[in-house]
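User: quick one, sequence for these tokens?
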């Protein structure tokens, strides 16, 4: 639990701050505004790329720093300034993709590049995707040979299969025993491969050092396996009631679900708004 005043609130978006219909409730927006009025910085920490955060920025009042791509990319939504961007190296992702393709027939890959704006998908990937998966039209994803997908470093390398779940794919990746990258999943139907050591906690630690804020001054919210490190790192890590086992285990407490305004409830209690 926190022993110092909160200076920054770090929150996941999908499944945590956002309701199931992808909206920010009026109650949640009011709580975020009250926190900002109290001098607390609000930072979205998400698997989304900046374009996906901007889709809901007005609803949530986001205009400052955001951590995208599971912490790989720190960007200021107002100025466009990039604080950092960590990439999976070309040789690393090529070795992973080639070995996994041999081990798991039908696996497909996509590379996220250029600050999250460019999405280079392998032939057959778009047929597995919907708009909500990546907040972009599958028709924009391309239809590339694997070599083209892997020919530049990736902010995030997406790994997907038509029938295997992310947890099943994760076991296959781990069985390869390869070094040089981190891998997680966010509740979406694919794995997310990041630069070695990168996680939401890694990105938030970098941002907090820049801002002069300590972990003990951070309140964090999450729901998915990719939130576990974040919830464990923060001075106060709160999982929503609908969270997956990894997030629940890492959190110091549990609030109501995303559809029951769980994030708002914690902020209201923090600020004595009830």
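Assistant:
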């Amino acid at each position: 639990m926190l022993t110092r005043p909160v200076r920054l609130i770090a929150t996941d978006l999908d499944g945590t701050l956002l309701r199931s219909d992808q909206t920010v409730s009026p109650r949640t927006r009011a709580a975020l505004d009250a926190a900002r009025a109290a001098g607390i910085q609000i930072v979205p920490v998400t698997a989304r790329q900046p374009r996906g955060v901007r889709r809901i920025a007005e609803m949530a009042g986001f205009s400052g720093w955001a951590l995208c791509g599971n912490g790989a990319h720190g960007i200021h939504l107002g100025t466009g300034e990039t604080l950092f961007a960590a990439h999976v190296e070309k040789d690393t992702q090529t070795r992973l993709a080639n070995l996994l393709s041999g081990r798991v027939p039908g696996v497909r890959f996509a590379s996220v590049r250029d600050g999250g704006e460019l999405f280079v998908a392998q032939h057959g990937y778009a047929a597995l995707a919907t708009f909500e998966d990546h907040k972009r039209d599958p028709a924009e994803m391309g239809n590339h040979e694997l070599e083209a997908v892997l020919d530049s470093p990736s902010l995030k390398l997406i790994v997907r299969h038509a029938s295997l779940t992310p947890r099943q794919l994760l076991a296959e990746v781990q069985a390869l025993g390869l070094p040089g990258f981190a891998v997680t999943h966010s509740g979406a139907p694919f794995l997310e491969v990041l630069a070695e050591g990168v996680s939401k906690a890694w990105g938030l630690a970098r941002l907090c050092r820049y801002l002069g804020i300590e972990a003990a001054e951070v309140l964090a919210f999450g729901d998915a396996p990719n939130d576990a490190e974040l919830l464990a790192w923060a001075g106060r890590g709160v999982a929503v009631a609908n969270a997956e086992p990894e997030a629940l285990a890492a959190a110091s407490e549990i609030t109501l679900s995303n559809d029951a305004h769980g994030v708002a409830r914690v902020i209201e209690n923090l600020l004595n708004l009830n």
